[in-house]
Amino acid sequence: MNLRPDPTFYPSAKMAMEAPVEKLAFTLMLSPDGSQPDGLAVVDVDPTSETYGQIVHSLMMPNKGDEFHHFGWNACSSALSPLTGHAFLERRYLIIPGIRSSRIYVIDVKEPLKAKIHKIIEPEELFAKTGYSRPHTIHCGPEGIYVSTLGGGGEDGTDGPPGIFIMDCETFDILGRYEMDRGIQDKHYDFWWNLPRDYMVSSEWGLPPQFENGIVPEDLLSNKYGHTIHFWDLRGRKVTKSIDLGENHQMALEIRPAHDPVKEYGFCGVVVDTTNLQGAIFTWWRDDDGEWQAKKTITIDPVPADADDLPELLKGFGACPPLVTDIDLSLDDKYLYVACWGLGEMHQYDVSDPMNPKLAGKVEIGGIVKKTKHPNGKDFGYGPQMVEISRDGKRVYWTNSLYSTWDDQFYPGDRGAAMVMARNEGGKFELDPDFWVEFPEGYRSHQIRLEGGDCSTDSFCYPNV
Amino acid sequence: MGDVMTTTAGLWLAVVLSGLYHGVNPGMGWPLAVSSALMESKPAALFRALGALSLGHFLAMLLILLPFSMLSSLLTYTEELRWGAGLLVIGVGLYLLITRRHPRFLARVPPHRLALWSFLVAIVHGAALMLVPIYLGLCGPEELEGGHLAASELFARNAGILAGVTLAHTGAMMIAGGGVAYAVYRWLGLTFLRKSWFDLEAVWALSLIGVGVLGLATASHG
Q: Can you give the residue range of the structural domain that contains B131?
C-alpha cells in the first residue's frame, strides 16, 4: 500500500492524457494448440531504448491450455473516488484469466522485468464460488475487481447463464456473483460503466459450444449468437433495460463508454450483419427522458472476392466480411479505432459527434484476401485485432490473433504472432515502420496493456475540466 | 495534554478541531462535492452535496451520542460510563489500526445517496464514536461543583451539550470540507486531489486511540 494515491491514477481522462509516455507494454501470448504454456511478454516501447520493439522479459505459466485472451489491472483511477474506500491501492498486479481453462493468474509486475506469479486461482474454486466458467474481461470498480465470464456451470458451460463475479481487490479472493437481477441476459462478453452515473453496459458473444471448437456456421446463419446489449443499475446490480440490436447483428462485442463521465453515451462493435456481411458500430446513449437508446452509426461493407482467395467457411459468399472484432476509444473521446480483422484494415473514426462518426484515417495490414505487408516488408499474419491506444492518443498498438480455433477457420495454417504500432500525429494515422515485435515460435498474440494504464483500463470518477 | 485538554474550553476545542479534521479528510467525502459540481457544471451542486454529506455525518453523531447522553443522565455511574466509553473508542481504534479494512457494503451505496453514505462512513470508521469521550467529558465537570442536579435538569443540560457538540462539530466539518472542495473547484483543480490525498487510516486509528486515552484521563480526573 502507498501513503499517497498511485501516481498512475488520475481524477479525469483529460489529466490521464498528460501522463508520462509509456515505456513498456504487456502482451499476452497463447499457444494455439496448447502444446506450450501461455505467457506474458513485456515489450519495450521506448523509442530511445536499444531494445525498442523487443520482448525484454517473458513469464511463462506453469500450466498448458489456458488460452489467454483479455486481462486487466487490479486497480485503476476508479480508486480516486471516496466512494470506493480504497484510494491507496497500487497498480501492481495483472489479472490474467485463461478463457479455455478457467484458471486465473495474478501476476505481480511491480518490477516488470522480474514479473512473477503472485497467486493462481484454480478453475474448481471459480466453479464452486460462482457457478461461472471461462473468465474474460477485467475491470476494477467500486466493489473490487469485476470479471465477466463467457460460460455458466457444467462441462460445456451451458448450465445456467454466464455473468460477472467480483474478486477482493487486495486478497484476490473470489467473493461471488455480481448479479441480483439479470433480466433476459443469457450470454456474456464485455462490460464497462460510468461510475458517477452509476450504470453499466454489457454485451454478448455466444455460449461456449458456439465458440470453443470454432465458429458454428449454422448458428451464425440462424442468428443464434448474441445481439443484445444490457443496461444495468451498477450498484443495484440489476438490468434496467435490454436493447436488441436486431438478430442479424451477430456478436455484439466490445463496449466503449465515453471516458468523460459527464457524457452518457458509448459505442458497441458488431462483428457481422448476417443479411449483408457488413460490420457495424452502434452508438448507445441516454436520451433526454432518461431512456437508453441505440442506433447503428457506422457500417463497413464487405469486399467482393474470388472464392479461391477465401477460406472454406466463406467460399459460398463470394465476399470478404470486414469482421469488426475489437474497438477502442481514445481518452479524449475523439477517435474510435475499429479493427476489421477480415479485411485487414484498422479504421480511425472521428466520433466527436457520436451520432455522426467520420472516417478520419485507415491503415491496411494483413487481411484474408489483401495480405498487406508491413512497411518493413514482413508478412503480417491474420488481420488487425486487439487494439490499444496510448493515454496521450498518439500511438495505437495492435496484435493479430482473434481466438485460436477461429483463427484457423478464417486464416488456415499458422501465420505467426505480430504486434505493430501506428502513430496518430500531425493529422496522419500511419504505421511506424520501425516498430515490429518478434514473438517466440508457435505462439499467437492477444491483448495488450500499457504500463501505467491505457484507453480500455481506467474508469474516471471526475469530469474533464 | 494534561490540564488544558481536560478543561471545558479544551474539550470544546477538541469538538471543533475534530470537525475540521473530518472535514478536510477526503475519505469523509469532500471530493464528492467537487465531483457533483463538475458533473452538473454549477457550483450550487457543490453546496447541495456538502449539505447531504454534513447531514449524514450529523445524524451519525446523534445516533452514537444519544445513548451515551441518556445513560449519563440516568446513571449514577458516570465515571464507569466514561471509562467504558474510553475503552470502547480505544478498542475501535486498535481494530482499525490492525485490520485496515474498508467494509465492502459501503461501495453498494449509490453515488446520489450522499447523506446515507456519509452517515454509514461516519459510523463504521468511528468518526462519530470519536466524539463520545469528548462529549462525556463536557457532561461531567459541573456535576461535581453544583452537587447533584435533579434528573430532569441533568437531562436537559446534557441534551443541550449534545446539540452544541453535534452542531459545532458538523459546522466545523462543513466549513473545512466545503472550503477545500470550493478551493479545488474554483482555483486548485483536481490535481490537488492527487497531490494532497494522504493515507490517514493509521493516523485516524491513532486519533481514536488518543481520544479514548483523553476520555480515560478526564474520567479519572472526575
A: 2-221
Q: Which percentage of chain A shows pLDDT scores above 70? A: 100
What's the pLDDT score for residue A2?
Answer: 72
pLDDT score of A184: 98
- Give the span between the Cα atoms of A439 and A437, in whole angstroms: 6
Contact B32 A262 (CB under 8 A): no
C-alpha cell at A232: 444495468
Answer whether B199 touches A (CB < 8 Å): yes
Query: In the predicted model, what is the mean pLDDT of residues A202-222?
Result: 97
Assign A362 to helix, strand or coil: strand
Query: B161 with B155: CB under 8 angstroms?
Result: no
Distance from CA of B168 to the nearest CA of A (A): 24
Cα–Cα distance for residue pair A379/A323, rounded to 1 Å: 20
Q: Is B19 on the interface with A (CB under 8 A)?
A: no
The label of the residue with cell 479472493 reads A173
Stretch 123-162 of chain B: residues touching chain A, C-beta under 8 Å: none
- The position carrying cell 430532569 is B152
Alpha carbon of residue A443 to chain centroid: 19
Of the candidates A93, A135, A137, which has an alpha carbon nearest to the alpha carbon of residue A117?
A93
DSSP states along B26-70:
GGGTHHHHHHHHHHHTSTHHHHHHHHHHHHHHHHHHHHHHHHHHH
Domains of chain A, each with CATH number or no CATH:
13-450 (2.130.10.10)
**Chain B residues touching A80 at Cβ < 8 A:** 31, 193-194, 197
Residues 6+ apart with CB under 8 A from B219: B79, B82, B83, B86, B136, B140
Number of domains in chain B: 1
Q: B114-140: per-residue pLDDT in tens?
A: 999 999 999 998 889 999 998 988 887
ipTM value for the complex: 0.91
**How many angstroms separate the first and last alpha carbons of chain B?**
16
